[in-house]
Task: structure prediction
Amino acid sequence: MAGNPRGKHFTVGVQHLDLKGVGQAIVKRTTAKGKQRRLTFAIPYTLPGETVEVEVGQRLKRRHKAHVTKIIEANEARVEPRCPHFGRCGGCTWQHWDYDAQKHEKTEQIKRYLKEVGFDTAVVHDAIGMNNPWEYRNKMEFTFAGDGSLGLHEPGNFRKIIPLHTCHIIGDEMLEATLAIANWVKVHALSGYDKDTQAGLLRNLMVRRSQATGEMMLAIFATQHPEDVPALEQLKIEIEADFPAVQSVLWLVNTHVADRTQSEETYTLLGRDFIYDEMIGYRYRLWFDTFFQTNPQQAEKLVEIALKMAKPKSTDHMIDLFCGVGTFSLPFASRVEKLAGIEIVDASIESAKRNAEDNGITNTYFLAKDARHGIDEVLTTFGKPDVLLLDPPRSGAGGKVMRRIARSNPERIVYVSCNPETFARDIKELTPFGYELQQVQPVDLFPHTYHVELVALFTYVGEIDSDSK
Result:
């Protein structure tokens, strides 16, 4: 068999899942010259150990995408997806997998990455899941299609929007408010934004709901100012009448070409421009662009685990790196002598300061600076930390930052990660400085997706490589 395999059918065995939860299979075929060639297939919505018949699609960088035409032998943990949109909507990737099996895979994924860089996987505990792994998100961003319909992107295709009539990872109130706005758009024949022509009114809808207070925010991103949209008056009447929990309705003007939920001008149509939420007894203000864990129930577990691992003392000095709006800062600040938070985003630092003030916390110092240079400035004015916590973005902290952390020589380092791959890459930088990985606790914040978070503890046990400093 020779030539381009696109459109051809193969029977393959799924060997494992990649970082994005997509099944991987390898087959050998003979070229026209009689040589053996390996083909690697990426097969969405398959599970390890399954035998499937696939049709080969487009070529990716080092593999071909393929879709299942027939499941010959299914994984024993395969289940019927709950959502009718599953497989077309990009919101979930693993609804076809039993939840216990999902948690096991996430634990094993972390172990694989740690093993690759030489760490003992015995320190990894089983992932902590949810008793009810549904309706857990407190924030969703939907996109308007050119015809005004509202939904989520098709996986791998940001130009195609799948209109939704249900969603099982958000609560009923969020769903009902979303559908009400979708209906308002339809009734008034409003246009959505077309990415190709860069024309149209409505771009995105963000829905936020507070776990603690029940308050909701509806934020509509559009290309025109609100005074140019007479139908908004009717929307305000409907929201006030039907959704008393909505305490913030925003209209955000976004004319940028980039497909991002950003605002050039923000208008408050109803209520205030933020809502309140709480986490383990601390109150936070959430604006439309505030980063806050989207699964607050599991996020509380992250904070509690970090506190348990770090064992903060009233005499400790602490640095919270990539502190955001103070999600970890506030609970820790209440237990240490003083805490410095570092975050590159100015708006997040201002929110962290305000959140500390709202909670009566006065022993914090928040600095808007990049991580590496922020550590240097804090060390000069703040002194050596006893505890350092970092919660970097998915891209990780990077080698320079990790080495700077190690040189600051805290007794305990707590690393909160949302990406096992970059976590493993980062922490190998700590070993030459005498740090030992004590434990890793995975926490499932995103059931029915491939994402997993973790909290890890490192302690200083003595310098190993004298050249490191």
